[in-house]
Amino acid sequence: MNIELGISSFGETTPLETTGKAISHDQRIRDLLEEIILADKLNIDAFAIGEHHRKDFAVSAPEIILAAAASKTKQIHLSSATTNLPTINPIRVYEQYATMDAIAPGRVEIMAGRGSFTEAFDLFGYDLENYDELFIEKLEMLLKMNKEEILDWPKGKFTPRVDHKGIYPRTKKPIPISVATGGSIESTIRTAELGLPIVYAIIGGDPLHFKPLIKLYRRVAEKVGNDLTKMPIAAHSWGWLDQDKEKAIKDYFYPTKLLVDQISTERPQWNGMTYEQYLESVGENGAIFVGDSETVANKIIKVMEELGLLDSIFIYRLLQCHMKML
């Protein structure tokens, strides 16, 4: 099995366990750039950065950080995680990532998503009730300009009419675009019908619960005649490595609990995390990949084989581990 291993980060700024104070946004962004440069030197396959518009995450413009990293790296693939299409102009998305591709040819990718947090809708003047429609329409527009230099686009509900206008700069090959989802049946079906790669955010429960969705994705793709060999399936999960397995488990609890507890105050379907729940999550059947290299590698292989994942897994590391990583 040929597995691509990536690292992802949202640039979180939760308080440090050692000081109880949050790191500044500017320092967190500089730290991220250091991490990407190091990951490139260590032959990590990819680094993906998420987009948020709230105080506890420093990154609101992942493409800026990725572009900075593009100029300082040689081989690592650089991706958003995700580009929140409902609240951004898809023409600007293409232009930004095409520009980045000129700096790092063939190493730039777009992971498109609807956004799991909702702050951007009010911030940029969009109605949350149009969550799905916004994403679908803007994704279709992005896909069209990714294939065609001259864009003809009828006025949509959320996008302007474009009459035979060129979109520049152009890339030598279309930018790889995948769709990220937390496990929605609708997103799975739609992505399969479009023939796009998919990335599942597997961050809780038993990862094998995603198996029916993956089977559905493949079944729908085959039904509409799409080529599954061009539709890799990837996973995004939380995790941390240390040479000492028990130390890795201990170190990762505090930042994980902080993040989960914060989200649980905003989402009724989430609960605060106890240490017992955490141990279950990092255990053999949990969705968090923590431990020494052998433990984590074996768990990754097990999950990917049982789910039938064909492409890659992104491990989301948390702020507390920045200095340990470097």
Topology:
Elements: E1 4-9, H1 25-41, E2 46-49, H2 62-70, E3 77-80, E4 83-84, H3 90-103, E5 108-113, H4 119-123, H5 131-147, E6 150-153, E7 162-166, E8 177-181, H6 185-194, E9 198-201, H7 211-223, E10 233-241, H8 245-264, H9 275-282, E11 289-291, H10 293-307, E12 312-316, H11 322-325
Parallel strand pairs: 1-2, 1-12, 2-3, 3-5, 4-5, 5-8, 8-9, 9-10, 10-11, 10-12
Antiparallel strand pairs: 6-7
Helix pairs in contact: 1-2, 2-3, 3-5, 6-7, 8-9
GO molecular function: monooxygenase activity; oxidoreductase activity, acting on paired donors, with incorporation or reduction of molecular oxygen
Pfam families: Bac_luciferase (PF00296)
Keywords: Monooxygenase, Oxidoreductase
Walk me through what this model shows:
This is Oxidoreductase, LLM family. GO terms for molecular function: monooxygenase activity; oxidoreductase activity, acting on paired donors, with incorporation or reduction of molecular oxygen. Helix 8 packs across helix 9 (275-282). The protein has an 8-stranded parallel β-barrel, surrounded by 7 helices. The chain has a two-stranded antiparallel sheet with strand order 6-7. Helix 6 links the parallel strand 8 and strand 9. The chain has a single domain, classed as Luciferase-like domain (TIM Barrel, Alpha-Beta Barrel), CATH 3.20.20.30. The two termini are 29 Å apart. It has helices at residues 25-41, 62-70, 90-103, 119-123, 131-147, 185-194, 211-223, 245-264, 275-282, 293-307, 322-325, and strands at 4-9, 46-49, 77-80, 83-84, 108-113, 150-153, 162-166, 177-181, 198-201, 233-241, 289-291, 312-316. The mean pLDDT is 93. It is of the alpha/beta class and 326 residues long.
